[in-house]
Write a structure and sequence with these properties.
Layout: E1 13-15, H1 30-33, E2 53-59, H2 64-68, E3 82-90, E4 96-104, E5 107-109, H3 115-121, H4 123-131, E6 135-142, H5 148-153, H6 159-171, E7 179-189, E8 192-195, E9 201-207, E10 213-216, E11 221-223, H7 226-238, E12 242-243, E13 251-252, E14 255-264, E15 270-278, H8 293-317, H9 329-338, E16 342-350, H10 357-370, H11 379-389, H12 396-407, H13 411-414, H14 420-423, H15 425-430, H16 433-436, E17 457-458, E18 469-470, H17 473-477, H18 485-489, H19 493-496, E19 499-500, H20 514-524, H21 556-592, H22 606-644
Parallel strand pairs: 1-4, 2-5, 2-16, 6-15, 6-16
Antiparallel strand pairs: 3-4, 7-8, 7-11, 7-14, 8-9, 9-10, 9-17, 12-13, 14-15, 18-19
Helix pairs in contact: 4-6, 8-9, 8-10, 21-22
The structure holds adenosine-5'-triphosphate (ATP).
């Protein structure tokens, strides 16, 4: 496929992710950087697969149809971490030119990469993390038709199937015999949750007193092997909302969340959680084609939630104290998988053909905003490489994985990983989950459906929850009709599920207050954390502009830190304003270069006019992004000011 890439024209400009020209001398190619090239056999660098946030890109091959239409591949992978987009453009004098953009991510997978290659560097570390007692999320983001479902939920090779093989292999290990796997599958469509395993029953996300997200009414199933998981998954997939868009005849119009839980057999308390998310297509206006208003509304809702997701992960990557979870239902339900000691892996999927270059750029910019790596020489990447070359700092799991990859073992052979307990010792020491999840569970589902309880803060007040029932594991195991589970799945709940769930939180009063939780986070990040609640001395000062008590003790270091934060905030706003100025210049230059646009009597050249309108649309989309960035910045800083003044924080800040 790479051979199809058109040569970059001489007059082409090299731009960074945001379209700002980069001086040629500063460009780094994979060759310069010593990285492998994009052809088969590329070995991605041995980076830390256990970072809190990983952002990877997957490029799919050109489809037969695209090849027949003569489309070319304009997105060459130029290193294990860098991809370029050679966007075809036309100057105002109609001469064609190419805009070249470069992006660097934790991993870039070329079109010849298999789902297994991708699994090894994305979901496998999350599976292991889940067994260590953590919460993790793996999601695919990209334009409609770019391969999200193929990557995430393909019934043969999707990451979830590959993960399932490893999960069951690990459950078979002696140290895990006390654990069992459960699965739930739901979709988020137009801001509402629907259970894909229970006749699309409407679900309500709630939050318990310990900041755990509980999906009220979600039916979860104990899973014994991969076959059963696939059967359950197939059943749920058929219920998923799809539609036809201008870009894909079978487009996912909802976000699908496949939630795998590892529970302790003795009390069904949660040991670990891994969510696979196939996001709805990220198409923008032009893709909607002749779409009706329903499709447009779907598109607007999808865009809103994707924007919220981006801002949340970005806030986490930058260790911002304020994470705007309330921006959408998607981020509300993922909240507990993002806070605390969690792991997130995003796979941005792209279509490499020239007609999709603008969408590809949008996807890559989105991914770039989530985790802003500054080229292959980014200090974060170099630090990891240094660690590797010194032979230290890598989790033993990673070393094992890489050794195994070199050995060419299959992923299910890898599952018999030795010493997984010791591999995760360090993480277990830091694990917050023993506190996040109630430890004294009844025999029932921990996350799925607590009954109404005074510890819950309800996210969605619109709907009353239904009584939750769940399938008794022993009953199912001994059931001779097990192979007919599909029929039972579609039967009314009471036929199958006879054990009402007790409220797990009833017997476990709140173990930790949000306040205590916050204190723990503040240890992690002294700079952005709250000041130590001002409790160290008796000294009292009255702040002139506030009725609440100001900090009794403020150290010079504390003030310096605050000034630093203030400067950082101004810098961020300054960058936003610079970007906006560039955007304005680009658009106004285009308009003023067309004299006929100003002649009222003379209609402008329709082709040029259409290009300008397109430019205007791009400008608005970019403006929207920059505006969100400013809002996030101002809100975060506003929270910090409030905290300095000793005022109460908003709900979202209590992680
Ligand atoms: N890496 C790949 N190799 C081969 N075929 C692929 C690959 N990625 C995607 N495809 C094919 O491209 C088509 C579109 O992929 P898919 O349905 O996964 O896109 P999507 O991003 O999930 O779209 P939507 O958001 O509309 O649901 C499918 O026919 C799929 O089989």
């Amino acid at each position: 496929m790479e051979g199809d890439t058109p040569p970059i024209q001489k007059q082409g400009r090299h731009l960074n992710a945001y379209g700002i020209p980069v001086a040629p001398s500063k460009r780094r190619s994979s060759v310069e950087g010593g990285a492998a090239t994009s052809t088969s056999g590329v070995v991605a660098p041995l980076i830390d697969l256990h970072q809190r946030i990983r952002v990877c890109v997957r490029k799919r091959p050109l489809s037969k149809k695209e090849t027949m239409l003569g489309d070319t591949d304009v997105a060459p992978v130029v290193g294990a971490r860098t991809i370029q987009v050679n966007a075809p453009k036309t100057r105002v004098d109609l001469t064609p030119f190419t805009e070249q953009h470069s992006f660097t991510f934790d991993d870039v997978f070329d079109s010849n990469s298999t789902n297994t290659d991708i699994y090894r560097r994305t979901a496998l570390p999350l599976v292991e993390y889940m067994f260590s007692g953590g919460k993790a999320t793996c999601f695919a983001y990209g334009q409609t038709g770019s391969g999200k479902t193929y990557t995430m939920l393909d019934p043969q090779h999707g990451l979830y199937v590959q993960a399932a093989y490893d999960i069951f292999a690990m459950l078979g290990q002696p140290q895990h015999t006390h654990l069992s796997a459960w699965v739930g599958f739901y979709e988020i469509y137009q801001g509402q949750l629907y259970d894909l395993l229970n006749q699309k029953k409407r679900l309500v996300p709630r939050e318990d007193g310990n900041s755990n997200v509980v999906i009220a009414g979600l039916r979860e199933f104990p899973i014994k092997d991969v076959d059963r998981l696939m059967e359950v998954f197939d059943f749920g997939s058929q219920a998923r909302t799809t539609g036809r868009t201008g870009a894909n005849n079978n487009s996912s119009r909802s976000h699908a969340v496949l939630q795998v839980l590892i529970k302790k057999k003795k009390d069904s308390s949660i040991h670990g959680k891994l969510s696979f998310i196939d996001l709805a297509g990220s198409e923008r206006g032009a893709d909607r084609g002749e779409a009706n208003s329903k499709t447009r509304m779907e598109g607007a809702e999808i865009n809103k939630s994707l924007l919220a997701l981006k801002e949340c992960i970005r806030a986490l990557d930058q260790d911002k104290r304020h994470t705007p979870f309330r921006g959408s239902k998607l981020t509300q339900v993922l909240r507990d998988s993002f806070v605390g000691d969690s792991r997130t892996c995003m796979i941005a999927t792209i279509s490499p053909n020239n007609p999709n270059s603008e969408h590809t750029l949008n996807t890559l910019r989105y991914a770039d905003r989530v985790k802003e790596l500054k080229g292959e020489s980014d200090p974060r990447l170099l630090a990891e490489q240094r660690q590797e070359s010194m032979g230290g700092g890598l989790a033993s799991t990673e070393k094992n994985n890489n050794l195994m990859m070199e050995d060419g073992l299959e992923f299910n052979e890898r599952s018999s990983i030795a010493n997984s307990d010791t591999m995760w010792e360090e993480d277990q020491a830091e694990n917050l989950l023993d506190i996040d999840f109630p430890s004294q569970m009844s025999n029932n589902n921990a996350l799925a459906t607590p009954q109404a309880h005074h510890h819950h803060s309800v996210m969605d007040h619109d709907h009353q929850e239904d009584n939750h029932h769940h399938e008794d594991e022993d009953t199912l195991e001994g059931n001779p009709q097990r192979q007919h589970y599909l029929r039972r799945l579609s039967s009314p709940p009471d036929e199958v599920f006879t054990t009402p769930v007790e409220d797990p939180f009833q017997s476990t009063p709140t173990a930790i207050t949000p306040h205590r939780h916050r204190e723990r986070l503040s240890d992690e990040d002294a700079m952005l954390s709250l000041p130590p609640k001002f409790a160290l001395t008796e000294q009292k000062q009255q702040h002139p502009s506030s009725t609440v008590q100001p900090p009794p003790q403020v150290t010079v270091k504390h003030i310096r830190d605050f000034i630093k934060l203030h400067r950082a905030q101004l810098k961020e706003l300054d960058e936003c304003i610079k970007l906006e100025k560039k955007m304005i210049s680009k658009l106004s230059l285009n308009i003023s270069s067309h004299h006929d646009f100003n002649e009222e009597d003379d209609p402008p050249d329709p082709e040029e006019y259409a290009k300008t309108v397109q430019l205007y649309e791009d400008y608005l989309n970019d403006l929207d992004d920059v505006h969100e960035r400013k809002v996030a910045c101002v809100e975060t800083f506003g929270d910090r000011i409030k905290a300095e003044l000793g005022e109460e924080e908003g709900e979202d800040t209590q992680q």
